[in-house]
Amino acid sequence: MFVPLRMLWNLFMELRISLLMPPSDSGLSEFDKHRLSMHAFKAKEKAYHPHSNFSVGAALLCTDGQVITGCSVDNAAYGVSTCAEQVAIVKAVSEGRRSFVGLAIVSDLSVPITPCGVCRQVLAEFCDPGMPVPLLANHSLNPDNNSRGMKEVTIGHLLPFGTEHTQAWESRRIPDVPNDLHSL
Ligand SMILES: O=c1ccn([C@H]2C[C@H](O)[C@@H](CO)O2)c(=O)[nH]1
Ligand SMILES: [Zn+2]
């Protein structure tokens, strides 16, 4: 009985938040942070980790309120493992989403982790330098824990002096998805 009620409550909150409280451009509300954290934790459960035994989950908040998640995907050739952060960005872009307002990241560790250098570069392609990135410890959703285990940084903190030498970057504009592709 407890589980379905909880699921209904989560669904209600999702609808309420995305309909009544769309994300704002300036920072993440406490609601958005909590919502993104829950999605990141859920995504972490899907991590494929037979080689590293290390699970990471990421949740990306799009401008329209949608959340796109990613989990880490190991590979026997360790170097081609894919990070959760990149999975989330690539999933979003391949679904026609290019505009984001926040990204939450969580791993199994009791301290927040920060994205690797490759992910920082990939994130900086699509996310503004001021975009908030809540980094979560594995206990950060536990209400019994006094220190909440969250550290908030921005894309600009993660990758200062990022690559800006192409024409597209002169206006810091990510081209929109072509209109005729929206209906596909
Ligand atoms: O920020 C990070 C660091 C590592 N990983 C994943 C990649 C690989 O599957 C595993 C071990 O590095 O953790 C991420 O998803 N994000
Ligand atoms: Zn990475």
Automatic annotation (TrEMBL):
Active-site residue list: 85
MF GO annotations: cytidine deaminase activity; identical protein binding; zinc ion binding
EC number of this enzyme: 3.5.4.5
GO biological process: nucleobase-containing small molecule metabolic process; pyrimidine-containing compound metabolic process
PROSITE patterns: CYT_DCMP_DEAMINASES_1, CYT_DCMP_DEAMINASES_2
Purpose: This enzyme scavenges exogenous and endogenous cytidine and 2'-deoxycytidine for UMP synthesis.
Protein name from the UniProt record: Cytidine deaminase
Species lineage: Eukaryota, Fungi, Dikarya, Basidiomycota, Agaricomycotina
